[in-house]
Amino acid sequence: MTAVADFEALRRRILRRKRLETLAGLLIFSVLLLVSFQRSQFFSSDIGGDPLGRIGDFLTRMVPDLKGDVLLESRTTTGSLYWWFYDLPVWLKLGWQTVEMAIIATVVGAVGGLLASFLCARNLMPIAAVRFTVRRTLEAIRTLPDLVLALVLVAAFGVGPLAGVITLAISTMGGLGKLFSEINEEVDPRQLEAMEASGTGLIRKIRYGVIPQVLPNYASYALIRLEGNLAGAAALGIVGAGGIGIELQRAITYTEFDTYLAILLLIVGMIFLIDMASEAIRHRLMGLGEAR
């Protein structure tokens, strides 16, 4: 009975300690959240009178004055769809350029992130100094805001898509490098240990021991990143880094709110298409498509 009583007492002490640790964690998180709200003036900012009314007024000005009886008329007819999307060929061309920017940046960034992930994974890189240096470099890259980096690169390379592609590729490398390294560290170690015991080199260990296990995860994260890069490429055009964002910036500058909405709808449509395509590819790679 003494042993049972001691066990119960030990269990209660452990549970009590765990509850106290959880409560302390919640209190610390709550305090940090409250301080963040206060510092960011989330609730105390003076936003003037009737902010919802101003938002409603802005949204109303974005809606074009379409007329049902001339909806399918030519561009010169006020109130038609073609009149609203008056520069559609140019927007589609710039939209396609945005897609190209996102694809190139994702491929280049994913390859860079993949190589970096092998250098900072604990189970693949035995040299601690190399792991530390690569990890800190990836962290430094992730701290750079895309818009700030794009402004610097636009100043260096000039206005155009090249600055946007380099910006997104660098950002992608920083983000995917961390994710890929964590995936690498979660592979089944038994295969790697068996290959090490047989004297297999690092390259062949990665090729035959790691990549077959994690390739669907690599592809899944890269495709998710592609969707984000498409939205990012559209936004970077505002600072002159190419893509449809240039037209978006022009519409904002000249207060063409209905044009702004038209371009936004095109961007949303592109993101929907990319999202559906990447979702189908991801499901196929994970074998979910065959199960349907």
From TrEMBL:
Membrane topology per record: Multi-pass membrane protein
GO MF, any single term: ABC-type phosphonate transporter activity
Pfam families: BPD_transp_1
Residues passing through the membrane, by range: 20-37, 101-125, 146-170, 259-277
Domain ABC transmembrane type-1: 95-278
GO CC terms in record: plasma membrane
SUPFAM superfamilies documented for this protein: MetI-like
Keywords from the UniProt entry: Cell membrane, Membrane, Transmembrane, Transmembrane helix, Transport
Protein name (record): Phosphonate ABC transporter, permease protein PhnE
Keyword Transmembrane set for record: yes
Protein's cellular compartments: Cell membrane
UniProt record similarity statement: Belongs to the binding-protein-dependent transport system permease family.
Family matches, as PROSITE patterns: ABC_TM1
